[in-house]
Amino acid sequence: MIVGVLGGGQLGRMLALAGYPLGLQFRIYDVVPEAPAEHVAEFLQGDFDDESRLEEFSRGLTVATYEFENVPVRAAEFVASRVTLHPAPRALAVCQDRLAEKTLAAQLVIPSAKFEAVESASDLAAAAARIGFPCMLKTRRLGYDGKGQAVLREPVEVAAAWQGIQAAPAIVEQFVAFEREVSLIAVRSASGECAFYPLVENMHRGGILRETRAPAPGLEPELQALAESHAARVLEELQYVGTLAIEFFERGGELLLNEMAPRVHNSGHWTIEGAATSQFENHIRAILGWPLGPTAAVGRSHMFNIIGAAPNTPALLAVPGAHVHLYGKSPRPGRKLGHVTLWNELDEHDRRIEAVRSLIANA
Ligand SMILES: Nc1ncnc2c1ncn2[C@@H]1O[C@H](COP(=O)(O)OP(=O)(O)O)[C@@H](O)[C@H]1O
Ligand SMILES: [Mg+2]
Fold first, then answer.
1. Distance between start and end Cα atoms, the chain
2. For ligand 1, what atom is nearest to the CA of residue 147?
3. 135/150 Cα distance (integer angstroms)
4. Does 139 contact ligand 1 (Cβ within 6 A)?
5. With a threshold of 0.70, does the pTM exceed it?
6. What is the CATH number of the domain that holds 158?
């Protein structure tokens, strides 16, 4: 059985690595030649508008999926016309456009920060005045790691912010004074079975995820149930198959949906060591219609992204419970090169968190 993956980044690489023990083979498609997944699977390089190359990719696949939410919907539709593709193109279309995403949340009565669509500098000025300052401008499409965003503190900043995002269609939303950021990794199988991982707490700096604590400290069953009920409505509405990540802002016992990713997610990397079944394996099980594996956390995990500079691997490995994952990428400022999951059954966990943190020089 061959699983096709559109996108050859680290997520594709980890999907393939999770699938080999199940006897699966992988075929990866990416636009760029040097992709992290290239070393671990059959690799096809091609543009997303090259239908003959996509045809070649689709041939003989059992199922196809994607690990990158900016795969053009037309490319996804083309592949879906040749072979089963999960999640379906509609999920991709919704999750790659912040306006569609937040509109869907509103339809499903999932709270999020107040927002408006903006198409011009004058739209932005008017919408920001209605929403109030501070607020946040975000391009509808193609933003990641805080790119394509600006915080507006006062009206005079409108013109520069609009130029800063190059006048791209955008949304402006209320700035949320959240207590913390949490995310939920949810999985729905082709058979309709659903599973949810425990909520995790995410720490960002400069718009980039730096660390994830799993499960989120002090996680109450009520909060977990709330997150699951929000996610279940999205899964049901989209007839979703695969892994879905939802980022929330936690504020006063409420969860405000920030954004969704129709794929495995950086805040779920801890599941490789720290959960009964990893998000990668469960994604594969889901798209094949196989039974999902249990999602309970085993012990406590703390995931650190390795950003910009290569780490001292042996020094990290000297910390008991530290697991190093490197993606085969060359160092560049702000680039995610790998991650470390510190997994422990509780004893000495906090001291070891400090030991790993001090060994990671985030550029
Ligand atoms: N409305 C908001 N209020 C406060 N902080 C925000 C808001 N939107 C985003 N942020 C901060 O910026 C980070 C990145 O924004 P996000 O919308 O998740 O974009 P992306 O992860 O695609 O770059 C969030 O994780 C959060 O820390
Ligand atoms: Mg985000």
1. 41
2. 23
3. 9
4. no
5. yes
6. 3.30.1490.20
